[in-house]
């Protein structure tokens, strides 16, 4: 066994974003303790935002330095390959940091002390959660990946519970802990089989040992991968493993819900990509159908998620539950590029995935921001709160309409092109049935999102006064709306940038 | 050689579009201010258009175009962009000028309307779309704007939607033009299919059809040209799709002047001129254009003789004059067509606005109920008279020169077409004489309190009247400036004294007979109707074309629609109901799963994974 590569001082540059987040977390924890009670905890929120932005700047710098060819291989490997800085990780990190920053920014001024007594903690706990997500997108070793996953999960449990006086919130947190732990257990169990069969935790080592394991113990490999699939399916809320999502989304404070929907989900996807594209994808022993079966079962899960998520959302009146189920459907769509695997015809899976993830992040954060304001105003989180919104706040209603159009996948929005690119991918790889399900569920989903539009424009609400908007939320809503439109008007440059950035050998395969 | 202003040509449609957004957003609160926003935005467009025109006239600049890749899928590339040529510059000036004057005029005409800001919003959207259409550098964006102006026309014809006739007219205008639009769309698809590199921009079309004969076979070229022409026939109200245009007069009069006389209906002519290379490549298409144009010219002119609604007379006159333009195109004279488009835009807008001024004052559209208005509405009467003279082709008014250019070109090509044009010119003069004398001369009706319209309405009339006089001098048999500027080459100069004398004589003859009939009374008004009453009824009923369409298209289609409705109800809706039911069944299943019991959730995870393993992995080990 080779000697462990240790960290050196020069490596801090590559770990700067992660270090910044850890540093800020520690400082803010202490600050929260020291600060007198009467000081508004929004201060902590602003500092959290600063921490995220600094980390974001470092990620951008790393992205640029990789792009400049500073690293000969196009990536940088730390600790014997268990941590790696590459374009795949950096782009996703940027998405996570950006999303978290918007979520924190929106929360400023909208979270009330009566609802969340531990406001300061809510803010600073976002930092370790993002850190966990970043580790998940940047690791090449099962152990580090799992540590990242747990860091993210455990902080999320606390975040969900932060509405301390709400029974709903406590119940949601409890359910989240239980199902989340079940999922972690599944993943860990699957991983342990993989380790036992191949003798390595580093994914490149697993790759090397895979052929041997296939010949000797194919059945156990099946079990290993399916256990992991089940665990990830729970984390991603894919049907029929999604039941927890609606309850948890409903109980959590709205910004935390947005965080779960965007960052936690995206990070689980990153980890899934890292593991499956490096292991299962290479299980290409001639006799064995393992590889086909695994990607097929991912396709089935994607299809099930799209169908169940869309159909379930049709019946929902609570907006958070509705968005949770819409998130189930969208997870199915996000899984599709991965499930299609790589073929000669379709080599741009990462661009398709990332493009839709970015669009998904913007439209969800925007929609949740609108929901925060509307729910605060009407006192409930049901669809009827949106009634007559157009007459009270026409501009917000217009922004929400654009975001909903994107969620529904109508042109000219980011959601439309995201779905379109993924649809093209299904056609190119001749997986027509999955494309058909994507199309049909999209059409059905119009009914879901148009319920909002009907409420906003055609119903008259009980409240006549204008909507009370906070400035950060308004800014967030409009940035998300404009970004959604920009993604719709300039799909090609963005996709081309992603395509250029991302090359399989350096960025995904170890 | 400067292209300083041309580079900013994209701003021309942006001004009115911004006005549209503001007016729509601010809504009903604006009233008077809203009207000014629309007018000022159009004025901005006008100034910029004039700058571009000046630059191009003085500098003899090269065409300027700018485009970006809109969507790229595989090797398929769609571009969007704008192009400034002399042809489009001419159209820019016409559209912005007429639009500005109509905006100004509408401030008076629509003053008491409750939805005045909506009106101005629609007008701004229309102006913007029309300008976009003119600037488009490829057929695809052209088509998008083409449809947009159609939508605006629909909205504005049906602006007074509480009137059933207006609603019906709006629907008719939309549906009839759709027939033509379908042709254009098919032409577009054919072009996309056959053009090298799937190019749809006008420059490539020009290159392919002008200099690379044989790239696309003659048969296909003819088909494409005829389908494009079908689009133009619909939009420009040519026979047999002319039926919508007279009905469209149910819209507010300024709209009739702007959309249904000066700009949108001329888009068909512009389309043929813009894709003229395709037509030139096919003699069949050229002949079709010429024959349809000539026939429409005389056909509509005869109907105009027997109508009694002031706006309908003008509408049939528009159809007839558009026929002239098509005739010019068909005999190969783009200059003649564009020249007539220019002069017609001014004098027909003038006539419509004049008619609007009359209607505004006496609140009726029936010319039999008017009379003697000339003494009370001096400005309207004088300007209307100038417009009528220009339309009748009396020298030296602008209509004379442009009609002369068309007739000269027709005589060169085909004497029969020349004679048809000449006869139509005679009828034109006759119905204008009838219209003018019945409205403005003679004894005033009792109980009518006509008075001159306010200055916002008369100033546009005066400006247009001046233009109707002088606009003709840009292209006379002695001075081919417009043709040279537009087409870039020295146009053949036929000074045909004979044509000039004949066409002037025919116009004067028409006016004289009209004067004898309706003022002097030497010829009795019922001289014709007493002898051949059937002919007059035939004209009054517009050759029964509407009834014919009702019988052969509308009725059968409606019955077919009934059958489809049944199919829709039982078969299509049946499938929808089943799928709707199954979706909500899945939804219900999902709700049952979501019992709130975390144990159930964990159980569902377990069952899920077992099913997955058994179904997918299990079959390998069976």
Overview of this protein structure:
The complex is a heterodimer of chains A (510) and B (622). Chain A is mainly alpha-helical. Helices cover 73% and strands 1% of the residues of chain A. A two-stranded antiparallel ribbon of chain A has the order 1-2. Chain B is mainly α and 622 residues long. Helix content of chain B is 73%, strand content 3%. Chain B has a two-stranded antiparallel ribbon. In chain B, helix 8 packs antiparallel against helix 11, helix 10 packs antiparallel against helix 15 and helix 15 crosses helix 20. Chains A and B meet through helix 6, helix 8, helix 9 and helix 11 of A and strand 1, helix 24 and helix 25 of B.
Write a concise keyword list for the protein shown above:
heterodimer, A: 510 residues, mainly alpha, two-stranded antiparallel ribbon, 20 helices, 73% helix, B: 622 residues, globular
Provide a short characterization of the protein structure.
The complex is a heterodimer of chains A (510) and B (622). Chain A contains 20 helices and two strands.
Instruction: Give the overall average pLDDT of chain B.
Output: 84
Strand percent estimate of chain A: under 5%
How is the quaternary structure best described?
Answer: heterodimer
* Biggest sheet architecture of chain A: 2 strands, antiparallel
Order of helices and strands of chain A: HHEEHHHHHHHHHHHHHHHHHH
SS field, number of helical segments of chain A: 20
Terminus-to-terminus distance of chain B: 81 Å
The structural class of chain A is mainly alpha
Approximate strand percentage of chain B: under 5%
How do the helices and strands line up, and which of them pair or pack?
The complex is a heterodimer of chains A (510) and B (622).
Chain A: H1 16-34, H2 42-67, E1 76-78, E2 83-85, H3 87-107, H4 119-137, H5 142-160, H6 167-198, H7 203-216, H8 218-236, H9 243-251, H10 254-278, H11 290-314, H12 319-339, H13 349-378, H14 389-392, H15 394-408, H16 414-428, H17 432-458, H18 471-489, H19 491-501, H20 504-507
Antiparallel strand pairs in A: 1-2
Chain B: H1 11-26, H2 32-59, E1 64-73, E2 76-84, H3 86-109, H4 116-135, H5 139-157, H6 164-194, H7 202-211, H8 218-235, H9 244-247, H10 253-262, H11 267-274, H12 276-280, H13 283-305, H14 310-330, H15 334-362, H16 378-392, H17 398-413, H18 415-440, H19 455-470, H20 481-487, H21 497-520, H22 527-531, H23 533-540, H24 545-593, H25 598-617
Antiparallel strand pairs in B: 1-2
Helix pairs in contact in B: 1-2, 1-4, 2-3, 2-4, 3-4, 3-10, 3-15, 3-19, 4-5, 5-6, 6-8, 8-11, 8-13, 10-15, 13-14, 13-18, 14-15, 14-17, 14-18, 15-16, 15-17, 15-19, 15-20, 16-18, 16-19, 17-18, 17-21, 18-21
């Amino acid at each position: 066994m080779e000697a462990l590569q240790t960290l050196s001082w020069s490596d801090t540059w590559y770990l700067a974003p992660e270090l910044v987040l850890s540093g800020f977390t520690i400082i803010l924890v202490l600050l929260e303790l020291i600060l007198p009670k009467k000081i508004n905890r929004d201060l902590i929120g602003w500092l959290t935002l600063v921490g995220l932005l600094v980390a974001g700047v470092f990620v951008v710098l790393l992205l640029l330095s990789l792009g400049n060819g500073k690293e000969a291989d196009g990536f940088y490997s730390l600790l014997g390959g268990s941590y790696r800085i590459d374009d795949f990780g950096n782009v996703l990190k940027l998405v996570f940091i950006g999303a978290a920053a918007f979520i924190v920014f929106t929360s400023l001024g909208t979270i009330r002390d009566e609802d969340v007594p531990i406001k300061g903690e809510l803010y600073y706990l976002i930092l370790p959660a993002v850190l966990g997500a970043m580790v998940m997108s940047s690791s090449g070793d099962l152990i580090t990946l799992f540590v990242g996953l747990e860091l993210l999960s455990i902080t999320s449990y606390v975040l969900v519970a932060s509405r301390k006086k709400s029974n709903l919130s406590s119940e949601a947190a409890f359910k989240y802990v239980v199902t989340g732990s079940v999922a972690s257990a599944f993943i860990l169990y699957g991983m342990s089989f993989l380790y036992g069969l191949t003798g390595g935790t580093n994914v490149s080592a697993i790759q090397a040992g895979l052929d041997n394991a296939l010949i000797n113990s194919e059945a156990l490999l099946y079990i290993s991968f399916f256990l992991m699939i089940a665990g990830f399916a729970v984390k991603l809320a894919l049907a029929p493993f999604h039941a927890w999502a609606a309850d948890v989304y409903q109980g959590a404070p709205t910004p935390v819900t947005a965080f779960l929907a965007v960052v936690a989900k995206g990070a689980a996807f990153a980890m899934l990509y890292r593991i499956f594209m490096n292991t299962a994808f290479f299980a290409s022993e001639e006799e064995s159908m393992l590889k086909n079966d695994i990607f097929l079962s991912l396709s089935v899960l994607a299809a099930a998620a799209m169908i169940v998520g869309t159909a379930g959302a049709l019946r929902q009146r609570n907006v958070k539950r509705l968005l949770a189920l819409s998130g189930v459907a969208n997870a199915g769509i996000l899984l599709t590029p991965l499930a299609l695997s790589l073929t000669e015809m379709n080599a741009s899976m990462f661009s398709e995935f990332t493009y839709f993830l970015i669009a998904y992040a913007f439209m969800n954060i925007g929609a949740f921001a609108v929901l925060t304001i509307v729910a605060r105003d009407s006192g409930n989180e049901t669809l009827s709160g949106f009634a007559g919104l157009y007459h009270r706040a026409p501009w917000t209603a217009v922004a929400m309409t654009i975001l909903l159009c994107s969620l529904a996948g109508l042109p000219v929005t980011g959601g439309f092109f995201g779905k379109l690119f993924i649809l093209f991918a299904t056609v190119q790889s001749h997986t027509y049935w999955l494309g058909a399900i994507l199309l049909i569920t999209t059409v059905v989903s119009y009914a879901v999102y148009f319920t909002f539009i009907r409420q906003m424009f055609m119903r008259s609400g009980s409240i006549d006064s204008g909507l009370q908007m906070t400035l950060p939320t308004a800014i967030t809503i409009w940035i998300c709306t404009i970004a959604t439109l920009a993604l719709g008007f300039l799909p090609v440059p963005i996709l081309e940038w992603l395509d250029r950035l991302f090359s399989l050998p350096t960025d995904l395969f170890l | 050689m400067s292209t300083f202003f041309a580079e900013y040509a994209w701003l021309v449609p942006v001004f009115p579009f911004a006005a549209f957004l503001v007016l729509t957003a601010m809504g009903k609160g604006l009233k008077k201010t809203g009207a000014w926003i629309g007018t000022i935005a159009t004025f901005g467009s006008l100034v910029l258009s004039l700058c571009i025109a000046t630059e191009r006239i003085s500098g003899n600049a090269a065409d300027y175009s700018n485009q970006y890749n809109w969507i790229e899928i595989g090797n398929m590339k769609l571009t969007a962009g704008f192009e400034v040529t002399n042809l489009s510059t001419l159209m820019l000036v016409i559209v912005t000028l007429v639009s500005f004057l109509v905006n100004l005029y509408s401030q008076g005409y629509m003053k008491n309307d409750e939805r005045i800001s909506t009106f101005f919003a629609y007008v701004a959207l229309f102006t913007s779309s029309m300008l976009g259409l003119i600037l488009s550098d490829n057929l695809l964006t052209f088509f998008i704007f083409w449809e947009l102006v159609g939508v605006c026309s629909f909205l504005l014809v049906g602006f007074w939607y509480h009137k059933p006739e207006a609603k019906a007219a709006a629907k008719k205008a939309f549906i009839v033009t759709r027939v033509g639009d379908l042709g254009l769309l098919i032409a577009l698809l054919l072009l996309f299919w056959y053009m090298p590199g799937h190019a749809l921009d006008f420059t490539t079309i020009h290159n392919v059809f002008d200099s690379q004969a044989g790239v696309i076979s003659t048969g296909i070229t003819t088909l494409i040209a005829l389908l494009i022409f079908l689009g133009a026939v619909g939009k420009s109200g040519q026979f047999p799709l002319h039926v919508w245009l007279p009905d469209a007069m149910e819209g507010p009069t300024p709209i009739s002047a702007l959309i249904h006389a000066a700009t949108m209906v001329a888009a068909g002519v512009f389309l043929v001129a813009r894709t003229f290379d395709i037509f030139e490549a096919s003699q069949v298409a050229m002949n079709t254009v010429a024959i349809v144009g000539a026939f429409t010219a005389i056909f509509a002119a005869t109907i105009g003789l027997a109508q009694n609604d002031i706006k309908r007379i003008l509408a049939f006159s528009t159809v007839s004059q558009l026929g002239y333009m098509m005739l010019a195109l068909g005999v190969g004279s783009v200059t003649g067509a564009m020249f007539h488009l220019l002069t017609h835009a001014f004098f027909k807008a003038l006539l419509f606005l004049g008619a609007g001024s009359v209607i505004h004052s006496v609140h009726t559209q029936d010319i039999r109920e008017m009379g003697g208005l000339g003494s009370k509405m001096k400005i309207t009467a004088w300007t209307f008279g100038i417009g009528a003279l220009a339309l009748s082709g009396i020298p030296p008014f602008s209509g004379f020169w442009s009609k002369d250019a068309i007739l000269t070109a027709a005589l060169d090509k085909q004497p029969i077409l020349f004679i048809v044009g000449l006869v139509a010119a005679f009828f034109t003069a006759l119905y204008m004489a009838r219209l003018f004398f019945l409205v403005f001369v003679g004894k005033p009706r009792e109980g009518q309190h006509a008075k001159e319209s306010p200055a916002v309405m008369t100033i546009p009339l005066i400006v247009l009247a001046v233009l109707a006089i002088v606009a003709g001098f840009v292209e006379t048999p002695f001075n081919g400036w417009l043709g040279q500027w537009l087409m870039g080459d020295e146009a053949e100069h036929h000074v045909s004294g004979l044509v000039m004398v004949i066409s002037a004589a025919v116009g004067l003859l028409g006016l004289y007979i009209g004067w004898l009939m309706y003022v002097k009374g030497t010829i009795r008004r019922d001289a014709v109707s007493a002898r051949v009453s059937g002919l007059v009824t035939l004209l009054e009923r517009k050759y029964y074309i509407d009834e014919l369409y009702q019988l052969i298209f509308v009725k059968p289609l409606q019955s077919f629609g009934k059958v489809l409705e049944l199919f829709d109800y039982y078969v299509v809706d049946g499938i929808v109901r089943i799928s709707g039911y199954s979706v909500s069944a899945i939804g219900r299943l999902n709700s049952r799963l979501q019992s709130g019991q975390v144990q159930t959730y964990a159980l569902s995870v377990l069952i899920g994974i077992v099913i997955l393993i058994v179904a997918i992995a299990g079959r390998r080990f069976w």
